[in-house]
Amino acid sequence: MISLAAGTVRDAGPAQVLQAASTAGYDAAGLRLDPASVSLAEAARLRRRADDSGLTVLDVEVVRLRPDSHLDDQRRLLDLAGMLGARFLLTVSEHRDEGATAADLTRLHEAARGHSTRIALEFMRFTGVPTLAAALALLDGNGLADAVVVVDALHLHRAGEPPEDLAAVPAERIGYVQLCDAPAHPPRGLDALSWEARHDRLAPGEGELPLGRLLAQVGPAVPLSVEVQSDRLTARSAPVARAGRLLADTRRVLASAAGPGRSTV
Question: Which Pfam families match (predicted)?
Fold first, then answer.
């Protein structure tokens, strides 16, 4: 399964994201929703649109764990994700304290009990969960059996963790993989890393990330989300054209890394 990440077409609303994904030929899409402004009725309409287009909603974004966040808002986003049939609710931590992250994540995990949508924790060097190892320790150390980790190719590399580290991770702990590309060497400083991740990613195959090695470590059943947040590409192309170009780039990377069972379509 190849999904169009919401951040790749951040200049499009949820309905336009689904249109871009369907027109370009993706299997799925991710949606970024504001629980304060999107109703359950609107989520139901989006679900029908996705179903009519043959699309799965892979993930809904984003829960930000931080001192001023509220569980009620997170529950509303969970309800929206459930209405959409989303597989995952993308979650990041902005806490500086590991204990606060663990407490908030545990509460969210409990709130998701009984939902079909699973909590997907994303690690990033510039957040409260900086590495794959830290993310796994949080989930395992707090008994969060139903939660998974999101593996972003950029964040894994910037954390200094080689793709081969994934060999020791139980398959059920990896929810999905986010694909993009970047130069091998990182910019200096956490602020620069944050800017790169949100504004300056490269298309798969344009940079020097070890994407082939990453794909070799995850099974063919693991969904791939094309997340290329790029000011340059956003300025140069409309959402549908951008989505199509990036899907073609992704398929070329998959073809070059193809092994038994890994489809390029």
Answer: AP_endonuc_2
Per-residue pLDDT of the chain (265 residues; tens, 9 = 90+): 999 999 999 999 999 999 999 999 999 999 999 999 999 999 999 999 999 999 999 999 999 999 999 999 999 999 999 999 999 999 999 999 999 999 999 999 999 999 999 999 999 999 999 999 999 999 999 999 999 999 999 999 999 999 999 999 999 999 999 999 999 999 999 999 999 999 999 999 999 999 999 999 998 999 999 999 999 999 999 999 999 999 999 999 999 987 544 555 4
**226 domain-assigned:** yes
Query: How many domains does the chain divide into?
Result: 1
Task: Sort 1 into a burial class: Cβ within 10 Å, 0-12 / 13-18 / 19+.
Answer: middle
Query: Looking at the domain assignment, is residue 262 inside a domain?
Result: no
pTM of the predicted model over 0.90: yes
Q: Is residue 264 part of a domain?
A: no
Q: Are 93 and 105 in contact (CB under 8 A)?
A: yes
Cα 43 from Cα 22, distance rounded (Å): 18
Domain, as residue range, for 238: 2-257
